[in-house]
Amino acid sequence: MQGKGLITLVAVILGLICLNELLPTWYASKIEKQATELAGNNPEKYQREIARLSKDTLNLGFTELYYSKSKEKEMKLGLDLKGGINVLLEINQRDLVNNLTNYSTNPVLIEALDRTDQMQKNSTNTYIKDFFTQFDLVNKEKNANLKLADPEIFGNTNLSEIKFNTPDDQVKRIIENRIELSTGTAYEVIRTRIDKMGVTQPNVQRVPRTGRISVEMPGVKDIDRVKKMLQTSAKLQFWEVQQVQEVLPYFEQLSAVVAAKGDSLGVAKNTNFTNLLQLNTLKSNGVANVKLSDTAAVNKILNSKIAKDLRPQNIKYTQFMWGYKPEVNDANNLVLYAVRGNISQKAPVDGAVESARINYDDLGRIVVDMQMDSKGSKDWKTLTGKNINKPVAVTLDNVVYTAPNVVNEIPNGRTQISGSFSQEEAQDLVNVLGAGKLPAGAKIVQAEVVGPSLGAESVDAGMYSFIIAFVIIILYMLFYYGGAGIYAIIAITFNLFYLMGIMDSVDATLTLPGIAGIVLSMAMSIDANVIVYERTKEELFAGKNIREAYNEGFNFSLSAIIDGNITSLLTAVVLYIFGTGPIQGFAVTLGIGIILSMFTCVLLTRVLIFSRLEKGKGLSVWTKLSKNIFRNTWIDFIGKRKYAYILSGIITLVCLISIATQGFKYGVDFKGGRSYVVRFADPVVANEAANSLEKQFINKEGQQNAVDVKTFGSSNQLKITTDYRVDEESLEADQDVESKLFAGLKPYLPADAQLSNFKDSGANNYGVVSSVKVGPTVADDIKSGGFIAMIVALAGIFLYILIRFKRWQFSTGAIASLVHDAIVILGVYSLLKNVMPFNMEINQDFIAAILTVLGYSINDTVIIFDRIREYLNEKKSLTLEGLFNDSISSTLGRTFNTAFMTFLVILAIFIFGGENLRGFMFALLIGVGFGTYSTWFIASAVSYDLLKKKGVEGAKKSLVTEKPEPTPEV
To answer: 271 in helix, strand or coil?
Structure first.
């Protein structure tokens, strides 16, 4: 055959490249396995064994392997396989705007920013786009006639490129570009911080035009430390401190208000504010010494509108800030400071740090020494000179680390931060300061945490499902296609090897959905061989010899294979563009698998088969049991279409009624909130746990927040979802939710259970094994992204079918069947949301499942349409109805075999792939079944009815296209 040498050369070169890419993963795993066998469960001994074994090298002639380099180059595992944390950081764009306006206090600007903050809670636009909209509205309402280039808005020294006459449209472009540049700066700072932590294989990516940064750190265990490190802006500032005498009259007045109107401030009506402040225990330059358990109540009071309106002139702009941590000799209290602010809330000293290092003071306590830059040094000299014998607060991200009295003016920018640091805390602070400050504050708007034990279980589940699926494919191909099946198995094996090697070479991350994508791509890639073999069987039954039959089998199948793979690839591309995290991993593996199948299952298989045939050897394409299956099978599909319309109409109506009346059960990524998977030593009844938790999750109005508790996988595991403090993305809010979760579940935990152990199940047999947090803004983005992905996928498929088959009737029939499939899957999830013993939530995974089904279903449809096009030239005497029936019936073997194998493979993942994949795979199971049905009875039937309106001969004439004769074998 033509091109045999080139195909063989490409296969060999590709194989060597993939082998070279995968060897480091194999070697690193080998060393770690040896270290585990020698060290057992002793982590310290394990590290010593790794250090010893890593000195060894393995020389393979063409390459030399050693552990440290292999570890750097090994295949990346996602956090769902390795444990760790994945977060979506959002840079505070209000801070960026304030900085770009040089902290202007223009009332139009302030009101526009306030409105934008409110609008963002339910908006899918970027912050800056909503700000421009609100600025125009406020400007018009107040008849201010301000231009964006006004000196009080963006026309200041911070933005030299903006002149007094710069048009608003140009200013908008400049501001958007500056914000994008600021996000780039934030990305570099975050990346540097992570590198300083020594995290292995972190994945840090910018999300373009959103002000967001995606960070994935597999293997990380100290989650709170990581969250704090990521959100710290390193905004080191120095402020004057107000003493208790200055604020005491205000506190006394506020105390009376709290006693009378406490419920309107978010606290109990009889709250004694003075007692909360514990003024008689003050030992520092603070204005209150508050119990840790009372800090939330004090925050609510001081931040309430009533309290702010009550402020006298001398503390109108005062900022109340908490100390970094409790003092050593007072572990249960936290100091509250009154920092002297101003109308712009710009600190007197806001200097960048040139260097920072750990040191020790005269008493041997850990401190952080630092050197300011030139501007900071100058401002620091002025501030200390003005405040000799007065306190000055050193703050980092609005938390007071220290507030000592100034003894002398400090002229050289050197200063010291103390705060009862541990060695680790001091090192983190040095790392953060050394990496530079973020251009604005950052908050975690989405987070996913997976414990190491769940990651290990996911690896096992993924491997089990992979092995079982592979065995199913091997057995079925050998049973149905005999000797030819062996070559299909060889092609799939190469396909898997190349797929893993390519993923490693492009630095893709392997996730649990990615493993599912690999397994599913195996089933879908075998479709190419099934199409070829079924066509070869037809040619053999027509009397062709074995070589002619295979030659025409490959030639006539190529068009159908290309069409089917391109439509499936379209959905993979849409999934990658609109998906996030694990869903992108699924899309990558599925997409690469589909592309590789064109090479391995068509070209490489052809080379192998014809190499055998050229030696005069035969190659069966059936077995005795399978030879006559579907042979001469003819079904009047078009004649039965009205019955199918009635059945589909009833099913669709039931689904639509359920969707309209019962709705769906949305996951946290579609509605916002926090979700936890908690494991217990013994079985727990979900309803009882829910009753206990509802008593904990009570909001500031005294109302219970929604808590959804379901058994997850096994009877000793619960999935708990709550919208408590859903609008708050701070670390403090996360910790509050976790502490309430622990308190509510404590009756079901061991007597000696501690919060720290509960938050990290680790070596315990109880605790949080995974968690997800999604802010409402991100949830809106995910929902809109999912809807757009569906529309884009359907539009792309419609256009491709239209271009490929040149008839809108085919495109309409194909889309009708896909919409039918989507409605059925949605309806089933609505009907069974409270019935099934596994997750039936509508979330990102579900959208991925629907898009995958669309790709699979259209693949089937394209095969039939391709056969209709072929039969137009070969069977001109047939009626239009006969043409459709013959085309569908002649492809029954291919459709059934592909559907049956795909169904079995998905069933294997559904049963053995772990609880996290069960809902996803259930949608695929429904989709494969109804997708096959809709291909026969919806796509083909609708296309037939639309074409029939032209009349039989008119329809057939309009379908005729020039089709080249198959290329003869050379």
So the answer is: coil
CA–CA gap between residue 234 and residue 398 (Å, rounded): 10
Joined tokens for residue 700:
């500031």
Asked if 619 and 529 count as a contact pair (C-beta separation under 8 A), the reply is no
- Cβ distance 935 to 895 under 8 Å? yes
* CA atoms of 597 and 523, how far apart (whole Å): 11
Q: Are 765 and 681 in contact (CB under 8 A)?
A: yes
Q: Kindly state the DSSP code that residue 602 receives in the 8-state scheme.
A: I
609 contacts 487 by C-beta, under 8 angstroms:
yes
Please, which pLDDT band fits residue 969 given cuts at 50, 70 and 90? very low
- Residues 3-60: tens digit of each pLDDT: 788 889 999 999 999 998 999 999 988 898 888 888 887 878 888 888 888 888 888 8
- Report the b/e string of 747-770 with b at 16+ CB within 10 A: ebbeeebeeebbbbbeebebbbbb
Cβ atoms 27, 58 nearer than 8 A: yes
CA dist., res. 708 & res. 103, Å (int): 43
Which residue type does 220 have?
V
CB 206 within 8 A of CB 742: no
Q: Exposed, middle or buried, 227 (CB in 10 Å: 0-12/13-18/19+)?
A: buried
Q: What is the per-residue pLDDT for 647?
A: 94
Cα–Cα distance measured from residue 653 to residue 647, given in angstroms and rounded to the nearest whole number? 10
Which position has the token pair 């083909």? 940
Tell me, letter by letter, the H, E, C secondary structure of 90-122.
EECHHHHHHHHCCCCCCHHHHHHHHHHHHHHHH
Phi, psi dihedrals of residue 714, rounded to the nearest 5°: -120, 165
List the Cα angle 18/20/26 in 5-degree steps: 95
CA distance 884 to 239: 81
Q: Which residues contact 875 (CB under 8 A, 6 or more apart)?
A: 882, 883, 886
Phi, psi values for residue 834, rounded to 5°: -110, 10
Cα dihedral 457, 463, 464, 465, rounded to 10, equals: 110
Segment 671-727, tens digit of pLDDT:
788 888 888 988 998 888 888 888 888 765 556 677 888 888 788 889 888 888 777
User: How does pLDDT run across 586-627, given as a tens digit for each residue?
Assistant: 788 888 888 888 889 888 999 999 999 988 888 889 898 888
Per-position DSSP letters for 721-779, written without gaps between them: EE-TTTT--SHHHHHHHHHHHHHHHGGGS-TT--HHHHH--TTSSSEEEEEEEE-HHHH
Greatest alpha-carbon pair distance for the chain in Å reads 106
* Per-residue burial over 574-608, b = 16 or more CB atoms within 10 Å of its CB, e = otherwise: bbbebbbbbbbbbbbbbbbbbbbbbbbbbbbbbbb
Q: From the centroid of its chain, how far is CA 70? A: 27
Q: Give the per-residue pLDDT at 363.
A: 75
Q: How many CB atoms lie within 10 A of CB 704?
A: 13
- Report whether 666 contacts 835 (CB < 8 A): no
Token digits of residue 63: 């390459």
Q: List 76's β-bridge partners, or say none.
A: 509
Give the predicted TM-score (pTM) of the model: 0.72
Contacts of 205 (CB under 8 A, 6+ apart): 213, 214
For the record, the structure tokens of 400 come out as 């007071």
d(CA 856, CA 927): 9
What is d(CA 28, CA 54) in angstroms, rounded to the nearest whole number? 9
* Strand residue runs (E) in 224-264: 236-242
> For 204, how many CA atoms within 13 A lie in the half-sphere containing its CB?
17
- Order across the sheet with 673-679: list the strands: 203-207, 212-218, 84-91, 442-450, 767-774, 673-679, 714-722, 707-712
The amino acid sitting at 561 is I
Q: What distances in angstroms separate CA 445 from CA 90, 529, 730, 734, one per listed residue? A: 6, 46, 9, 11
